[in-house]
Design a protein that fits this description.
about 425 residues, mainly alpha, elongated
Amino acid sequence: MALKVSNLDGNELADDYIRTYNPQSRWGDTWGIVKNSFLKLVLINLFVLICFVPAITIVILRNVYINGMGYIYPFNQSVLYPFYPDTVGLTEKLYFTTDLYFYAGLFVAGLVASVGVSGAAYSVRKLINTEGKFGVKSFFHGVKVCYLKTVVPVTLFIICLFSTLVCRDWMNVVIATGGNKAGAITAFVFVIIATVLAGIYCAWLFAVGTGYRLKAGELIKNSFAMMIGSILPTVIMAAFSLLPVWFYLIGGFFQVIAYAVFLLCGFSFMLVCWTAYTQRVFDAYVPPVIKTVKERPAKSEKNSVAVSEDDGTRRVRELLAAGKSELIARPIMPLPENTPSVALGKTFSRADVAAVNARREDIKKEVAEYEKAHENEPYYAEYNKLFAERDKALSVEPDKKGKKKKISSDNLLK
């Protein structure tokens, strides 16, 4: 972190979510999110895969075209026996011209692929920062706010990749035709190194651009500073994130695995790995602000009193509208579970009836005593006072002319 990173604080690109999750163990927690949100990652991968259809189509057509040329061109010298055409470097030249034309279409395909990558980048970052929250609307919102910041690094990387592929074919042509072998190999090695470095920088340009709202100059400077400040872990994480690509390049059985992974979650896997790593680097430069439930603004004492009065008035209105209830107006004696009771059987005598009546009178006496002992409690006193004042207000005496005075509804609440 030798270079200074600026203007990240407060400029995080999080329009439709609030960061509520701060991983304690970055990779352990990320793995937990992946397990709990695997189907969401599959859906994100499907969106990206659809946007990569033009690029995949170009690669397939290029391979079909080359295989078709194998049946037309005289690569076997005995085809035109007894004539022996000069086929030195013919195969290499065919690859060179084919790649030059077909791979040029990747620039257009990159514009379409950037749609899926931008939406997926925003969705994966939201998934990590909110512990699994994701919606289809978030994907398309990510396309809206991150497309321009995605298409630029994607186009730059395609330029570097196109240069590497063309340089490889040119090197093969030079070697096949007996040219300067050492010079061609040296040039190809330098192009590979330049492409790797440019690819790493484009990855940081993409991560910073889709994570923060920055001007072009600040975006370029901060991306370079973060790449230089963490060059070794960046190389390691970039290599690990491209694990499905390595499987494809190895070929054989691993290529079959690569196809299956890309169809299921290959693009999501690369984005999750890279986003989790870059988020850790961002948090090292800018301490994360983890927000919980939004707190209500503190109310002034005057407003609090007004709200309290409004609640009290509303409560009074509800009680008056419901009418006086005897269950609320007078204390009700609770009966304990072990209260003795006298019941009549199928056959009983006068003495049994007298015992039941005596027990009933005892219960009435206990209830009356309980009611008298608790009738002055604030709960019952205030309730009865409310309706007593209402009855008093309603029973107004007529004035001198014999007309009853008008009663204001506000007087009933005082």
